[in-house]
Amino acid sequence: MIMLCIGHRGAMGHEPENTLLSVRKALELGVDAVEIDVYNVEDRLVVIHDRDISRTTNGHGYIEEATFAYLRTLDAGKGEQIPTLKEVLDTINRQAIVNIELKGNNTARLTVKLILEYVRIGWSYQDFVVSSFNHYELNLVKAIQPNIKIGILIYGLPWGYIEIAKKLAADLVISGLDYVSSELVTAAHQENLQAWVYTVNYPKDIKKMRQLGVDGIFTNYPDLIDE
Ligand code: G3P
Ligand code: CA
Question: First CA to last CA across the chain, in angstroms?
């Protein structure tokens, strides 16, 4: 069985996370999918992980309180700008699946709008997976366009996560490494849900995920997975 390799925030073990440099590195390492995180800033989707921009850039403050113009002046590592989602999509250019994690509020509508624009110019719905810990935003994605695949991100082992996935008509369950088990994988597969696991950075864990029959793993080091 094939286990997908998903580059986490691009290939953040090698290049500054969520930058185009990181996305290009992930592609160079032959990932099946690239995962990035998005927020809504003045109705534009920008790619960054934290609410507080100070960890990954030379700026200060909260991402959703910043202007887009200010964010674009910042260094997100090695002189890279904080990219827009559109720039990430153009960089990936259908060389891998794009996993868009909705981190911020009010990201679902803009994300669907952008996906539809790319589908209109020849991309496929299969080129995208939208995921989130915010299941309200995810619900909105599916409600607007049921062809878009969604993955419910879970933290820990929430009671009734399979029922939530079914209720949302989700396509994937995305669990943390510490909580994945053969029961979780079996329960997901019984409901035709793929099971993806974050974040798997050690060979012994990669081996374990294969044994469990996990469908995809997020890793900071896509070069660790050679099959
Ligand atoms: O989507 C998997 C993983 O990226 C979720 O955790 O904190 O890295 O966004 P985080
Ligand atoms: Ca993420």
Answer: 11
Whether CATH 3.90.960.10 fits 4-224? no
Amino acid code (one letter) for 9:
R
- How far does residue 126's CA lie from ligand 1's centre (Å)? 21
| Mutation pick for ligand 1 pocket among 100, 149, 155, 199 (CB with most ligand atoms within 8 Å) | 199
Q: How far, in Å, is the centroid of ligand 2 from the Cα of 37?
A: 5
Secondary structure element (H or E) that encloses residue 165, with its range:
helix 161-167
How does pLDDT run along the chain (227 residues), one tens digit per residue?
Answer: 899 999 999 999 999 999 999 999 999 999 999 999 999 999 999 999 999 999 999 999 999 999 999 999 999 999 999 999 999 999 999 999 999 999 999 999 999 999 999 999 999 999 999 999 999 999 999 999 999 999 999 999 999 999 999 999 999 999 999 999 999 999 999 999 999 999 999 999 999 999 999 999 999 999 998 75
Closest CA to 82 of 28, 132, 11, 9: 9
Assessment of whether the complete model's pTM goes beyond 0.90:
yes
